[in-house]
Design a protein that fits this description.
single chain; 151 residues; alpha+beta; Aminopeptidase; 4 helices; globular; binds coenzyme A
């Protein structure tokens, strides 16, 4: 039987499970546990999808004034293609809206077609004034596309 999925904000107890999922999805570029811990304590937004056995997806975001950033989005490989990423983004955007954020930004690898397609379907577009990927955004050879959405 398919387990019920609960979308909720993360608790401190979720942090090791989020870190584990992050390693599974992002491997050597995953957030170290201590960074997740500090971001949680600093009040960053962490939304998780809980299937009652484990955390199967999470999003990390921050709102500062009227501008917010989506900093991470990860769905466990076994759960992909079932609408979880889109629903999780919607929940996270809803949370940012409740913080009075008006513009949401994110960075994405230019070759990450599935993520770019998801973001476009939610109304994100390449940020005005950025013609193509921003070169070396995360350091040498690490170009990123900056996308934005007005809430
Ligand atoms: C990107 C990611 C979050 C999508 O999650 P998901 O739950 O599989 O996505 P959904 O099922 O909600 O799909 C939503 C939309 O994403 C796009 N998408 C998802 N998988 C895709 C694929 N394999 N190819 C192309 N588009 C895809 C489609 O636009 C899809 O809409 P549609 O179903 O109406 O066609 C997931 O693949 C993931 O965790 N990837 C690795 C981590 C990552 O790249 N994170 C983003 C970093 S910026």
């Amino acid at each position: 039987m398919e387990s019920r999925l609960l979308f909720r904000t993360a608790t401190e107890e979720d942090l090791p499970h989020i870190a584990q999922l992050d390693r599974e999805v992002f491997a050597d570029v995953a957030y170290p546990f201590f960074v997740l811990r500090q971001l949680f304590d600093a009040g960053f937004t962490l939304v998780v999808v809980d299937d009652s056995e484990r955390i199967c997806a999470y999003a990390l975001a921050v709102g500062s004034g009227d501008r917010g950033w989506i900093l991470a989005l990860a769905v466990a490989p076994r759960r992909r293609g079932a609408g979880l990423g889109r629903e999780l983004m919607r929940e996270t955007l809803c949370h940012l809206r409740s913080l009075r954020v008006r513009e949401v930004l994110l960075s994405v690898e230019p070759a990450n077609a599935s993520a770019i397609s998801l973001y476009r379907s939610l109304g994100f577009a390449e940020k005005e004034g950025t013609a193509g990927p921003t070169r070396n955004y995360f350091g040498p050879g690490e170009d990123r596309l900056i996308m934005s959405l007005t809430l």
